[in-house]
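Weekend entry, working from home. Most of the wet-lab plans are on hold until the incubator is repaired, so I used the time to fold the two sequences that have been sitting in the queue since the last round of cloning. Logging both here for the record. First:
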Amino acid sequence: MTYNFDNPPERRGTGALKYDFNLERGRPADALPLWIADFDFPLPNETLEAMHRRVDLANFGYSESMPSYYEAITDWFKTRHNYEIAAKEIIKTPGVMLGMAAAVHAFTERGDAILIQPPVYRPFFEIIRSSDRLLVENHLVYENNRYTINFEDFERQIVDNKVKLFFLCNPHNPVGRVWTIAELTNLRDICDRHGVIVASDEIHCDYTYPGFTYTSYGTLSDNAVIVTAPSKTFNIAGLQVSNTFIRNAQLRKRYKKAIDGFGYSQISVFGLVACESLYRTGADWFSQLQSYLLGNLEFFRSYLAEKLPKVKLIEPEGTFLYWLDFSAYGLPQKELDSIVTNKAKLWLEDGDHFGSNIPGFERINGASPRSVLKTAIDKLHAAFE
């Protein structure tokens, strides 16, 4: 069937974090929320029907995954990403960030150093600091409207700080890089040389734009923990399901022990049902969404250039998030945030949220109806021009 992504259902008043908590999060009540990586498009009918069938059973006791659950996951990653995983290598968790946190507790001790690459997803910072580990930063290099890795500094940080664990973001949130095989291989060689385990957040793996190909770090190294989820692909974060792939049996044993230490066992039954159904039947829906989001990017690029030529779009290679450079206005980050929030009445994610060492950046969610993106640019135009 053909899906309509222009007219999603209304979510206000449903307890949606995106819409119903502006005031609690310190934003104006009328600010248009484009801050969180959450879109409003309904799930494909096949999955809704599968969940309704589960409701009709009228029993929600302890539930576990059947073999078909693992088959759906392994088929999806083999078919779409040429990534072969065995069922025994999959460990379920209720979310990617818990999966990353489990790697911290499995492979490091208090005081150990963990490396990240800002600007990067804020929970990386929070997990490391809250676990009493040493946060070490290898800042991505911003040149010519693109981000790259400073490999010399990457290795120096590992050696100088005796880094034990590296948090990779692949594809990268917020800068939109889809790391190449050459880049990933270079990272692997450095990490292997110094005994660093890699925990790779690959939640955005299904979102790449034409000309770019996602390669899982797990296809290049067994010394790794690959944390994935259908929650960004299909927007089911509220169902709390993610899957961690660990090929190395010893690492898998240590990781499972950390999960046990959290007192965690089965994930939500609706997470199980949705994950299996979406990976099994959601390919057509997702293909149509990808086409729509490509159109969004093309529209956003041209309309932004027309209305706000001083704002640079960091051309995304993957994800549905756009990283915007407002530095031509010469504003401190706090003043930029104030204009965006209080004058344009938009709720975006500011650059400081991601540990950016360069002021003047904002992240906006491109997985929105096109009319909403147009409204957002119009609001920015009115505020800045």
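Second, folded right after the first finished:
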Amino acid sequence: MPVNIPRRYWRNLDWPLILAVLCLIAIGMVVIYSASYSQLEAANLNPFSYVRRQALAFCIGLGVAIVVVLIDYRAWKRWSRLTYLGTLLLLGGVLIFGDAVFGSQRWVRLGPLSLQPSELAKITLVLVLAKLFEKEENAQSLRGVTQAAVLTLIPMALIVIQPDLGTAVIFVGLFFAMWYVGNARLRSLLIAALLLVAVAGGIILASMQGWISVIKPYQLKRILVFLNPYADRDGAGWNVIQSIIAIGSGRFFGKGIRGGTQSSLHFLPANHTDFVFSVIAEEFGFLGSLFVLALFVLLIWRGLRVAAVAKDTYGTLLAAGATSIFFFHLIINVGMALGMMPVTGLPLPFITAGGSTMITSLIAVAIILNVGLRRSKIMF
């Protein structure tokens, strides 16, 4: 197993990327504490309970990330098939043995933390698609694209059954992003995208008519409420309305830590998870929100730079795929908080409270760093 890294490689370590991630993690700890302290105190629990879990997940994720960085990414090819099969077993097992939370069967309890296999499945998909699209002909032939689509749809279907449509959307984004980076033909991409929109529209329409039950009633309501939250202001639209109020009330400088009324008075549900960006906007204002978004832009930019200067196509695909995870999560989570996208429950990496999200995000960063360490070109 190639774990020795020549000393000259360490000069390629991407410090701007690392500093951006550490800043986001620090901000996340503060926001999680501020968002959850009042509800934890009301329940006579330690107000640092969620912060401690997040710190534990960070320590575990950091350990895993160090191992990922040390092993040459080109050695991962031989493990991709085994990793994929293991992920499918985890996704199937969670449907049978997992803990149900709010009607979703997504978690497996591991001591103080809960593991969400669907989060790890994103990393697995990146590894599998990178190996497949490394050969340009697979990105340009019907057989290769079909194989990639099947590899994406199998874990995606298991995730939809949980049900977790938000993560399933990320899988679609990863498929198209890595297909594009693998040098797909533009015409094929457009045809596939139009076909996907038509199929998705047909599924939504059929679910609304009751012909099929792929999309649950509450998920349909979320999609419809997205168009007009005030159509059900005390029901499905409540979260979005309160999120928009929280963001607007923060104004330019915000209300300060533990000063957000929408959050501390429990008007804003899931304030330390789904709507954590709303807490940032309320307590740190437009300026703080802009700073957090700038850190994510820096992370994504550095990831794309690593992909552009990677030693080989496989490295380019790995770095691009890992970076895409952050891009899609950022767009969907922030769009959800602003009422510009349906509520899906997707976390904001490094900020949202959640062990699986923290560990998976650190692994994705480690993949980018690994590819960057072993690049052969000069990066400024």
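Plan for Monday: verify the second prediction. The chain is about 65% helix and 5% strand.
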